[in-house]
Amino acid sequence: MSLSEANKATILNRVVEGDITAEKAAARLGISKRHVFRLKAKIRQDGISGLSHGNRGKRPANAITDEIKATVLEKGRGEYRGASFSHMAELLERRDGVKISPKSVGRILKEAGVYNPHRRRPRKKYRSRARRERQGELVQIDASPFDWLETGESWSLHGAIDDATGDVIALRFEKEECSAGYLHVLEQMLKTRGIPGAIYSDRHTIFFSPAKEDELSEEDILEGRKAPLTQYGKTLYLLGIEHIPARTPQAKGRIERLWGTLQHRLFLEMRVAGVKTMEEANAFLPVYMELHNSRFAMRAAEDTTAFYPCPEPEKLNLILGRRDERKASAGSEVSWHNNRYQLAEKSGKTVLLLSSLPFFCAGERG
User: Fold this and answer.
1) pLDDT given at position 129
2) pLDDT attached to residue 361
3) Which of 96, 120, 215, 324 could form a disulfide with 211 if both were Cys (CB 3.0 to 4.6 A apart)?
4) For residue 195, what are the β-bridge partners?
5) How confident is the model at residue 119, as a pLDDT?
6) What residues of the chain score a pLDDT lower than 70?
7) What are 123-160's pLDDT values in tens digits?
8) How many Cα atoms sit within 13 Å of 153 on the Cβ side?
């Protein structure tokens, strides 16, 4: 019996013996006079022990069973190791049919001495930029190198996230950060969502050329550019997508925070799904995106979309193809990758090429 319970028992016992009135006892205990009478009746019937709760000493009906505790420990030390308590609770419910709160998972693991690597850090204070109001108004893109398959080998995950909803639109693994990875991400986005209004990226040379003004082509000068377009920049230009450069990582905080989430969750989801190779990993990404978006995506301020329809497949292949400018020789030949090409009519007659022209291989992704 606790000190407060002992004090309560002493006062109520005096009421039973007639030393003090029920009104005074109610005032001292902070309860109603009617409740004092109830407790007085219990003492007369069962003695002082009648004041104890009926469930005292009994196992709670909602107590976690030893079987569930054993499952949590087994998974926490095994295939779910490294997961946050919240993520582990999701995995246990989705894959093992065990419904348990993240706090309970944490308590079980801590009692068993299992270390959790995920600690809450104090947030750095930055001035937040308001989300765009419609889906597709702005899409952030970036890449993150990480040991995604836990083999000691780093791969770069290229991704795109919608600014208005936090919806992960496309993901793609490549050995290094490259234009091919970003073009695959762009192709996924175009085919599944459409053409966004603007793309927000860092100032990597994949996106923005470091060339100087004296290296501009005639086309660049006519378009009023201060630097030539990269292959990726040309693709966005043909699609009519505004390309916005971010000057700091915090400026594109939406996708930077996404990498933190994926580095805690994606590798673990691939582990439990039995993913062993990068080919399998790229095939698994659409499955993970559906899980991720159902958990983290939010509704945009406006229900209308800012995505424009995707071009027809044949036109899309031409737009996403690599472009290299070449000058025709006197014999109307164009050299590309140590091969020479001529444009000919159906009759076999060579078509004269009088000036430089954009020559590209349709469908090539860098």
Assistant:
1) 75
2) 46
3) 215
4) 308
5) 65
6) 1-3, 5, 49-62, 119-128, 211-226, 323-325, 354-366
7) 666 566 788 999 999 999 999 999 999 999 999 999 99
8) 10
DSSP state of 251: G
Torsion of CA 315, 320, 321, 324, to 10 degrees: 120
Q: Are strands 339-342 and 333-336 parallel, antiparallel or unpaired?
A: antiparallel
Residue with tokens 């490259």: 178
- Which helix (H) or strand (E) segment holds residue 38: the answer is helix 33-46
Both ends of the chain: CA-CA distance in Å?
A: 76
Tokens at 123, concatenated: 């947030």
Residue with tokens 């630097």: 227
Amino acid symbol at 22 = A
User: Nearest 5°: CA angle at 216, between 210 and 219?
Assistant: 130
**b/e code 175-206 from CB counts within 10 Å (16+ = b):** eebbbbbbbbbbbbbbeebbbbbbbbbbeeeb
List all residues 6 or more positions away from 45 whose beta carbon is below 8 Å from its beta carbon: none
DSSP string computed for 117-170? ---PPPPPP--PPPPPSSBTS-EEEEEEEE-TTSSS--EEEEEEEETTT--EEE
**pLDDT for 60:** 67
**Phi and psi, residue 207, nearest 5°:** -100, -40
The pTM score is 0.70
Q: Which of 180, 194, 197, 195 is nearest to 232 (CA)?
A: 180
The answer to whether the CB of 80 falls within 8 A of the CB of 272 is yes
Q: Which two tokens stand for residue 257?
A: 């925070």
Nearest to 32 by CA among 40, 283, 341: 40
For 310, residues 6+ apart whose C-beta sits below 8 A from its C-beta are 190, 191, 194, 195, 316
CA distance 83 to 80: 6
The whole-number pLDDT of residue 19 equals 84
- In angstroms, the CA 172 to CA 306 distance is 23
> How many Å apart are CA 170 and CA 185, to the nearest integer?
5
